[in-house]
Design goal:
The chain has helices at about 5-10, 15-30, 35-45, 45-50, 60-70, 70-85, 90-95, 105-115, 145-155, 185-215, 220-240; strands at about 130, 135-140, 160, 170-175. The strands form 2 sheets. It has a two-stranded antiparallel ribbon with strand order 1-2. It has a two-stranded antiparallel ribbon with strand order 3-4. By secondary structure, it is mostly helical. Strand 1 (about 130) and strand 2 form a beta hairpin. About 60% of the residues lie in helices and about 5% in strands. The longest helix is centred in the last third of the chain and has 31 residues, at about 185-215. About 20% of the residues are buried. The chain has 2 domains: about 5-115 and about 125-185, no CATH class; about 195-240, no CATH class. Helix 2 (about 15-30) packs across helix 9 (about 145-155). It binds zinc ion.
């Protein structure tokens, strides 16, 4: 392999699937804090695009800074969140089959490297949707890390969850089981505590009153209760 070939392989290489999903989770969970966006772009340049530094922010407000310096990342975060919550097919298509102007420079490079005949110059990229006649379907080929992340996210939609704890600081997660509702034990426990508190607030008074009533009941009633239970059992047995 000569040096230009090995350079080409390097450019074409995408993240491993597990890393892609990790990165897309991180993107969805980015807080409105420029420091978070900066860390993210440094860690996952393939997701961020490298065309992030555009203009001076109009103020030091976090969202102004983010819009000015990380607009591409912000836009993609919005897309991923919408997709994660089950909507917005238009944006998925726009990211998976993007017009050239929506690509970051490092992504354009990945596209160009894949061109065999330079057809991109005529405004048309290599086909990313290819028919598989043998399997009887079409396959999508991601060219960028971000596209791969999106593609895997949709492929794993059954496990792509939003944490049921409304105060969760990072609610977008890939679950281990489709029935999992909370991103972590911490969120599940918080919910249980809250549920108990609410239950006591709503029902505690009645429950305590009922317990008191049972405790002070006259012995005669208890006998009667036993008789009712016994007859119920009998009826139930009779139905079987
Ligand atoms: Zn959570």
């Amino acid at each position: 392999m000569n040096s230009s070939d090995s350079k080409k392989m390097e450019t074409l290489a995408l993240l491993k699937p597990k890393q892609s999903l990790e990165a897309i989770c991180e993107l969805a969970n980015l807080r409105d804090d420029p420091r978070d966006f900066l860390r993210f772009t440094e860690r996952w340049p393939g997701f961020a695009g490298l065309w992030t530094q555009f203009y001076e922010p109009t103020s030091a407000e976090p969202m102004d800074v983010i819009r000015a310096m990380f607009y591409g990342v912000l836009y993609r975060r919005g897309s991923v969140r919408n997709i994660w919550r089950g909507g917005d097919n238009d944006r998925i298509t726009a990211h998976l089959l993007p017009p050239v102007e929506d690509l970051a420079p490092n992504e354009v490079e990945k596209y160009r490297e894949r061109e065999k005949d330079g057809s991109a110059m005529a405004g048309r990229w290599s086909d990313q949707i290819v028919p598989n006649w043998r399997k009887g379907g079409f396959e999508y080929k991601p060219f960028t890390d971000f596209q791969q992340g999106l593609y895997l996210l949709v492929s794993n939609s059954r496990l792509a969850k939003v944490c049921a704890n409304p105060d969760c600081p990072a609610p977008y997660f890939i679950a281990k089981k489709a029935t999992q509702q909370y991103c972590s034990d911490g969120c599940a426990q918080q919910f249980q505590r809250e549920w108990k508190r609410n239950w006591w607030a709503k029902r505690g008074k009645a429950w305590r009153a009922n317990r008191k009533r049972l405790a002070t009941r006259k012995p005669g009633r208890k006998d009667k209760q036993t008789t009712v239970d016994a007859s119920r059992k009998k009826t139930k047995g009779g139905n079987n």
